[in-house]
Amino acid sequence: MKHMNTESITTLESAIEQFPFICEIRTPEEHEKALILMDQLTDDYDVNLAIIDILWPTIERYEKSAPELTKFNDELAKLNRGIE
């Protein structure tokens, strides 16, 4: 995975400026970047918690509605219904 420079993220404002997809993911490419960023942010979880708390729901929203993930989501829903 490509490494992103997260050292310069000092505030939520700078995070949004550097990574505009933090609040809304629009493309599979932005989704991939968000996953890479999340992986890096969790390396120092306590310091990055404010950004993680915004990015994680953004990733979840995208993954629930992304056309390229529809089949996966449908299969997951079937599995979850079988567990209940």
Query: Segments where pLDDT lies below 50 for 5+ residues?
Result: none
Q: What global shape is seen?
A: elongated
Alpha carbon gap, first and last residue: 36 Å
Number of helices: 4
What structural category characterises the helix and strand content?
Answer: mainly alpha
Number of domains: 1
How is the biggest beta sheet arranged?
none
Radius of gyration: 15 Å
Strand content: under 5%
Mean pLDDT, rounded to whole units?
87
GO biological process, one term: regulation of DNA-templated transcription
GO molecular function: core promoter sequence-specific DNA binding
Protein name: HTH-type transcriptional regulator / antitoxin HigA
How would you describe this structure to a colleague?
Helix content is 67%, strand content 0%. Helix 2 packs antiparallel against helix 3. The protein is mostly helical. The chain has one domain. The chain is elongated, with a radius of gyration of 15 Å. GO terms for molecular function: core promoter sequence-specific DNA binding. This is HTH-type transcriptional regulator / antitoxin HigA. InterPro entries: Antitox_HigA (IPR039060).
